Amino acid sequence: MSSTRSSDAAIAIDELAAARAELARLQDCERELLEELGSVRAAVRVQRGKIDDLFKQRRLPAPITRLPPTVLSDIIYRVILDTHPESDAHRCTKRQLASVSRLWRDAILGFPDLWTTIAIDPSWSISLVMAHVDRSGECPLDIIISNWSSYSDSFNDLIGVAVTCGYRWRTLVIQQIGGKAAVQQLVKSIWKMRFPSLECVKIFGVQTSDNPPFLTSRYAPTLKHLTLCDQDRIDELQVNSNLEVGHFHLSGRNFGSQPLSPLLSCQQLRKLVLSGSSGLRDQWPEPRSINFPALASLTLNLADPYPALAAMVAPNLSYLRCSRARSWAPVFGDFPDVFTNVRHLHLIDAKDGNAPFESSEADVRAVCAACPGVRHVELLAEDISAFFKPNTTADRWLHLEHLTLKGLRVGVIPHGLIQWLDERNSWEQSLLRVTLSEFRVPESASDGPWLTTLCESLRGRCLFELKDFPLRITLKAHTSSQGVCTCAARRCDAHNFTGRMCWNHAEAMPPWESPSMSAE
């Protein structure tokens, strides 16, 4: 028995000795690894210091300096395009960017597209205009004449330099011109010039009732886009017969006897916008007397759009944006099945400052009869109750794919629309895409779970989309033990959600419980 115990004790002693030896070995290994780690860390610090020194001594170029010159020039070009006003962008922003480095300066000076915008503006000098003329090479030029509120000899000097390359003018914009006769006459000094490459003209605040020749085919043979604002006597205007886009803002009541007569020869017109005052009905052409065979887009933002709408024949019209004074029946009532090719219909209220008018059943019948083949309809939220209810005339829109409702008041659930969607889906049609935008937020808007209720109500019934939804943030104040307020109690409106939130019946609910979010 004693010999067995002695043997066990010897084994235990041997195992202990072996364990201690292994521990000692591991500790030596740990010490070596720590020493090696220390050496590596020291080497890392040395290497980082060397890299910092190299950057400080500019031995290594910054990453942006390794961009190809064309890429760098394009980035600078986009920055300047996003700077407003344009006259300051080309007068100040370019100078600031050119002072960054020699590389940036060379990229700006050697990129002709950065010098194609010339402002005939009191803040511009003759040398600056000459620099743009020279450095733009032979590229097309965009000319902006603006900010002349009084007579100045410098206008003649600046325009004199710019017209030396009038054959390169691509765009001409005239805006913010004073009402004095001398100033108007200065601008009209270019009326009789020829611009063989001019494609776009936009004139704001300068009357063209004296029929400027440079808008005609003889003086501007390539003119495609014309915008004239605050005009009267447009019946005397002569424009290029090859015009493709026209935007006319009418002012006053003196339109002449035939307001649309200048466009009679524009058989290639694809887009037309008429806005402002509509004058008297007897001033407009006879119904269906003006033919626009190529017109695809028509916008009538007039106090009374009926006479303009009645005068036109546009068999290929696919987009129609129209305003109303009080109701839609007087606007569309005389046009059943006239706009059968319209696919996108946008109905708005005339901007007269009054509260929106609610539509009647007669309005719905008139609109649906005039435009039976629409696929995308944009309406005001006030029209929901009239257009979308059980057994409504809007059921005739059999090809409707997208519905946009603007101006829904926060806190309102459109129950009529929900019922109509249920009825529509019972016909086994594809889910309708519904977009809500331009929300109206009343001052007394509550923090209840309105958004969640709205989403839950529409989920599964349509492809639902929110656009520019106004988010609100609530900050809660907390008081420390010393009685010091650590956060002021405040409610603030966050920036509008400019993206889009979309989900359908197969997607989960949005991850919020109310339009208010608490931040503690």
CA-based gyration radius = 35 Å
* Mean pLDDT reading: 80
Count of beta strands: 20
Helical content class: 25-40%
Helix run count: 13
How does the major sheet shape up?
15 strands, mixed
N- to C-terminal separation? 76 Å
> Could you list the spans in which at least 5 consecutive residues all have pLDDT below 50?
480-520
Percent of residues in beta strands? Answer: 15-25%
Pairing-aware structural class of the strands and helices? alpha/beta
Strand order of the largest sheet: 1-2-3-4-5-6-7-9-11-12-13-14-15-16-19
How would you describe the shape? flat
How would you summarize the topology of this molecule?
Blueprint: H1 2-56, H2 69-81, H3 86-98, H4 102-109, E1 117-120, H5 126-135, E2 141-148, H6 153-162, E3 169-177, H7 181-187, E4 200-204, E5 225-231, E6 245-250, E7 271-276, E8 290-291, E9 297-302, H8 306-311, E10 312-313, E11 319-324, H9 329-332, E12 344-349, H10 361-370, E13 376-380, H11 384-387, E14 402-406, H12 415-425, E15 432-437, H13 450-458, E16 462-469, E17 472-475, E18 490-493, E19 497-503, E20 516-519
Parallel strand pairs: 1-2, 2-3, 3-4, 4-5, 5-6, 6-7, 7-9, 8-10, 9-11, 11-12, 12-13, 13-14, 14-15, 15-16, 17-20
Antiparallel strand pairs: 16-19, 17-18
